[in-house]
Amino acid sequence: MNELDIAWAAGFFDGEGSALVEKTNTGYTIVVNVANNNKEAIDFFHKNWGGRIVCITKEKWAEYGRKANQDAYQLKFNHNDAARLLLDLYPYLIAKKLHARIVMSALASIPEQRQGKRIPRGFTQLLKPFYEEMEEKGFIHSSK
Q: How many domains are contained in the chain?
């Protein structure tokens, strides 16, 4: 993959991507994904950075009470894939640069033997300061 492809991907991620530390019922988690109804764009990310593609069909949107003219795709990244994606895109990001920096720091805080795997409940508290930083910056709107 060349520099132009990575710069394009960063611009796409700035508009259609998400990199957050979120609060769950049992602690905190890292969420990195990109979503769009253009399957070719999602496939480009999948081919180059991995992840798991989820498709929400027009019919599924109707079940949610929403009208959609086409299917929508979401590519969800595990921790290792998210780290590679954010590291590659970081120099070119604009709108999501600070999000990426915080999430990369959060990923680095996870003990190496747990990276790329589901974070055990005891370790999720390590992510709390990163969640609080994102909340303080206005990236997350809590229901306090």
A: 1
Tens of pLDDT, residue by residue over 4-14, are: 999 999 999 99
Q: Which amino acid is at 46?
A: H
pLDDT digits (tens, 9 = 90+) for 82-101: 999 999 999 999 999 999 99
Distance CA(21)–CA(100), nearest Å, equals 10
Rounded CA-CA distance 52/33 in Å is 9
142 within domain boundaries: no
Task: Read off the CATH number of the domain in which 34 is found.
Answer: 3.10.28.10
pLDDT band at 144 (very low <50, low <70, confident <90, very high): very low
- What is the span of the domain harbouring residue 60? 3-136
